[in-house]
């Protein structure tokens, strides 16, 4: 008997659906709130989920995002949407929902879809099969989504992947995480296209035969060959000279290359993962990047948000860097104090994770005992006006409370001693709003 979790707050509709589904031979676990549903879905045993998008405590979308964030191996999930909210439906499908039905609901259509899903869905893995803490990329919903995405991409090892994001967000870290999931025993070879002189890139990528040019005394395999059946990470792909782009395209298309000065084709087994901090589409428009290569390398794209857009990761990463520093230098084991946390959350981090890492390293070195010396590096704050400082302090306090309370409005407001309305107004004012939660 297929076990279905139904998350529906409307009593009449819920009862009717339970009755019909039971008659049709499904075992139904009916939950009336988003939070109760979330708890049910985190338990193993349920095979399919039917979720109403409009729930009173937690929207269906927020619920689904939390499931993804908690790394639950997603069940085939059908959503019920009302009011023709097609944007919601599209968003859910993109996030991985199996399908959606609109209200007024046709129970027959629901049964048909559930039967089809039950017939095709694989047995479920244990939902608590967490990756080790060491393997994690972050705890923000954005990074959890990327982790889940990597699990999917690892199952399609031939398809090129493009990783985009500002400098220092962790593009190489993500590429390595994909490699670990896909083929940890095979090589990971990284090449920075911006760092190599134009004259050397071609030989570096494709290799050369003996005598191919002056100084080529031996045959040398290029990085494509060195990567074997592993991953070739081409960083700063936007800086690749145009002439080489067409050659790269041919290799990606045919999965074969010829070394410089050679005639024999060599099979390419590696997965190509490209990265860029530049706007590739703009480079295409400006004629600096080939449009066909652009489409080829970005079949699958992972866009890593800047650190300022995922504040949940700041303290998590900070703790991690502190622990790493402490492990290397046992005399410099430092701890974050409340004021340090607020300060960290309040910074814009234009250099992203790299800047955070360097800041903490410096603060560990300059610190004493368990204390870090973070704020001595903050000269900008001293130069701002009193009003700006007050506002910055207020923003940081609110952000810290939001992160601590997982963005639950009621709890956060209680923690701060203000009303929900005031909290909401301040969140809007400081750009801290998160639309997903109504907690
Ligand atoms: N999720 C993460 N967990 C731990 N460390 C991270 C994470 N993301 C980034 N880092 C650290 O931040 C630094 C920058 O990361 P990385 O080199 O991957 O960024 P990038 O986006 O490739 O940068 P660039 O565009 O400058 O090449 C590295 O030292 C890396 O170890």
From TrEMBL:
Pfam families in the cross-refs: AAA_lid_14, HTH_8, Response_reg, Sigma54_activat
Q: Which CDD domains has this protein been placed in? A: AAA (cd00009)
* A GO MF term: ATP binding
Keyword Transcription assigned: yes
Keyword annotations: ATP-binding, Nucleotide-binding, Phosphoprotein, Transcription, Transcription regulation
Ranges for domain Response regulatory come to 3-118
Residue runs in coiled coils: none
Give residue ranges for domain Sigma-54 factor interaction: 136-365
Residues the record lists as 4-aspartylphosphate modifications? 52
**Could you tell me the Gene Ontology terms of the biological process aspect for this record?**
phosphorelay signal transduction system; regulation of DNA-templated transcription
InterPro entries for the chain: AAA+_ATPase, AAA_lid_NorR, CheY-like_superfamily, Homeodomain-like_sf, HTH_Fis, P-loop_NTPase, Sig_transdc_resp-reg_receiver, Sigma_54_int
Q: Which Gene3D superfamilies match?
A: 1.10.8.60, 3.40.50.2300, Homeodomain-like, P-loop containing nucleotide triphosphate hydrolases
| Protein name per its UniProtKB record | Response regulator
């Amino acid at each position: 008997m297929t076990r279905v979790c139904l998350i529906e707050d409307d009593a009449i509709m819920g009862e009717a659906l339970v009755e019909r589904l039971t008659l049709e031979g499904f075992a139904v676990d009916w939950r009336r709130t988003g939070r109760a549903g979330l708890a049910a879905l985190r338990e193993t045993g349920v095979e399919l989920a039917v979720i109403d998008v409009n729930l009173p405590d937690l929207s269906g979308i927020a619920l689904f995002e939390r499931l993804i964030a908690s790394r639950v191996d997603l069940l085939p999930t059908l959503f019920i949407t009302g009011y023709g909210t097609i944007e919601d439906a599209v968003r859910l499908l993109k996030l991985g929902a199996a399908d959606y039905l609109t209200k007024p609901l046709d129970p027959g259509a629901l049964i048909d879809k559930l039967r089809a899903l039950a017939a095709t869905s694989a047995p479920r893995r244990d939902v608590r099969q967490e990756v080790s803490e060491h393997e994690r990329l972050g705890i923000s919903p954005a990074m959890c989504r990327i982790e889940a995405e990597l699990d999917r991409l690892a199952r399609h090892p031939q398809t090129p992947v493009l990783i985009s994001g500002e400098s220092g967000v962790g593009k190489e870290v993500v590429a390595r995480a994909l490699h670990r999931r896909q083929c940890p025993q095979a090589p990971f070879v990284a090449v920075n296209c911006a760092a190599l002189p134009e004259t050397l890139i071609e030989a570096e990528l494709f290799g050369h035969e003996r005598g191919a040019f002056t100084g080529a005394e031996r045959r040398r395999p290029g990085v494509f060959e060195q990567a074997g059946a592993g991953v070739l990470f081409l960083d700063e792909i936007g800086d690749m000279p145009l002439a080489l782009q067409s050659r790269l395209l041919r290799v990606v298309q045919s999965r074969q290359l010829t070394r410089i000065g050679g005639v024999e084709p060599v099979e390419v087994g590696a997965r190509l993962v490209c990265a860029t901090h530049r706007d590739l589409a703009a480079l295409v428009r400006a004629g600096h990047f080939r449009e066909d290569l652009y489409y080829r390398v970005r079949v699958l794209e992972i866009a890593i948000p800047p650190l300022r857009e995922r504040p949940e990761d700041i303290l998590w990463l900070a703790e991690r860097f502190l622990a790493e520093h402490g492990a290397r230098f046992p005399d410099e084991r430092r701890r974050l104090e409340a004021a340090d946390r607020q300060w960290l959350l309040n910074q814009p981090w234009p250099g992203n994770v790299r800047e955070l890492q360097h800041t903490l390293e410096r603060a560990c070195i300059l610190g004493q005992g368990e204390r870090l010396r973070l704020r001595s590096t903050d000269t900008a704050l001293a130069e701002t006006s009193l009003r700006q400082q007050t506002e910055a302090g207020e923003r940081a306090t609110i952000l810290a409370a939001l992160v601590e309370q997982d963005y639950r409005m009621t709890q956060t407001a209680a923690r701060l001693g203000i009303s929900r309305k005031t909290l909401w107004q301040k969140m809007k004012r400081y750009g801290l709003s998160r639309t997903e939660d109504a907690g």
